[in-house]
Amino acid sequence: MTLLDVRGLTVRTTDGRTLVDDLSFSVASGERLGLIGESGSGKSLTTLAVLGLLPDGMSATGSIELAGTQIVGAPEKRLTAVRGRDAAVVFQEPLTALDPLMRVGRQIAEPLRVRTGLKGDDLERAVAHALEQVRLPEPERIARAFPHEISGGQRQRVALAMALACDPKLLIADEPTTALDVSVQAEMLELIDTLVREREMAVLFVSHDLAVVAKVTDRALVMKDGRAVEEGAVHTIVGAPREEYTRTLVASARRLESALDLRSAR
Amino acid sequence: MTQADVLSPVRPKKTSPGTRRNRRSATLVVGCVLAGLVALLALVSLFWLPYPTDDTSGGRLAGPGGGHLLGTDKLGRDLFTQVMTGSRIAVEAGLGSVLIAATIGVTLGVLAAFAQGWLDDTVSAFLDILIAFPTLLLAMLIVAARSATLGSAVLAIGLAQSAVVARLVRILAKRVLAHDYITAARTSGTSWSRTVAGHVLPNIWPTLVVNLALQFGLAVLAEAGLSYLGLGAPPPNASWGRMLQEAQATFTTAPVGALAPGILLVLLVIGVNLIADGLRDTLDPATRRRRA
């Protein structure tokens, strides 16, 4: 069953620049799709368009169908119903994704309350449970902390817990590991991988990093300058890229990888 | 220390250097003392005054002492009584104006922040026009439409200030709304009203409170200015502004009549500004996070 169906998506600014150009792809339920591309290729805009959250001065045309609901041109009320229930998002920068003046627990409680209608102690228990699921130690303590009182990796886990608290059918992860240390990155990827598999959740994973996308997803879409360049199974794209741009991307990733290998071998 | 404490995921709060914190609280304390002095006079005047406000039994322009702590004015009224009523009117004017400015300003500012495109432009242009419109002219219009009362003056000052507050709230709220956590809240289905109450207001609160404290001082000054021109509270309710105006002609022979309200006015405004300064240091998330 197709969960997300994007057909001919075009995003334009009011001054006439085209940022995403006639993009089409689909994600089936439980499927994991990676969006790869350099910065400015329009991958983040695509995810925002899927949620109907394009910034001021940008408009989308084409068709985005999320769990049977047309997103393009939908009124705010219908979008509010879709968001959270059908799709939730984890952002790149965990510090700005959490309200600095609100205790972590309350931020997770909000989507939980909206979805389950829990109150008081039950809600508190549900929050602790949500924090436990993203493998955070001492959930009660973290729930009482402010975002600046916990580490970057912990903040990103909290952000993931917030997104999962809605129990969405599609998890959109926009460069969720880019702002983290390399050692924390691997843990985070592992965690996303496990949690998503457990829940049979579909994932739209956005990254500029081929290695990261290959780890979490089955299929990948390569974007450049707002257009889809190549689409296919991740191992085919990494192993035998067809397009010139993908080949360059893979080659540069290889070069970086070998440089890193060299350094660690010394 | 238990093992749990050692492995604590929450970093312990670092304390700031003592001297900085002391200087910070000193500002707040001095401000509270100065403004509190006037507030105390205002509070006492509600229950007790040395003389009735329309009592003219004292000698004209008597010096301090002899049953009149600060002497009397040219009509023989007790100056201390007038100064006390003046304190009450000043505090009322400040509170009333700030209340009006905060209510209208925050509502309009938040609405403008959420509005997009032409609606935002229209509201912003309207606010700019209102800010450019002289408070004095607005006050005269309102006085002409109603009458010269304290209420009219407070309404005029409050309306003028609400435009300033609205513009500030709009820009602060817009900055908050641009953050990822608002997008995250929206994606998780948080309603519009909960976003405002839970995220926007708490995040703009520190800056807003400081600004409102400053607006209080400005409102007190504006009320004194308006009543100096006869656009404030009518007699026998002595307002500092009108006391200054009445004492102006006899300043060389009886300076206390002008000095007393003048000094109290300065004390109140300085006090409120010091409070605002102290509040900014303790409330501002930027300085607070640096401390944490």
UniProtKB/TrEMBL annotation, chain A:
It holds the Pfam family ABC_tran. It is a peripheral membrane protein. Keywords: ATP-binding, Cell membrane, Membrane, Nucleotide-binding, Transport. PROSITE patterns: ABC_TRANSPORTER_1 (PS00211), ABC_TRANSPORTER_2 (PS50893). GO terms for molecular function: ATP binding; ATP hydrolysis activity. SMART domains: AAA (SM00382). Residues 4-250 form the ABC transporter domain. GO terms for cellular component: plasma membrane. Belongs to the ABC transporter superfamily. This is ABC transporter ATP-binding protein.
From TrEMBL, chain B:
It holds the Pfam family BPD_transp_1. It is a multi-pass membrane protein. Its main location: membrane. Residues 87-276 form the ABC transmembrane type-1 domain. Keywords: Cell membrane, Membrane, Transmembrane, Transmembrane helix, Transport. The chain crosses the membrane at residues 26-49, 93-114, 126-144, 150-169, 208-231, 251-276. GO terms for biological process: transmembrane transport. Residues 1-22 are annotated as: Disordered. This is ABC transporter permease. Belongs to the binding-protein-dependent transport system permease family. GO terms for cellular component: plasma membrane. It is found in: Cell membrane. Gene3D superfamilies: MetI-like.
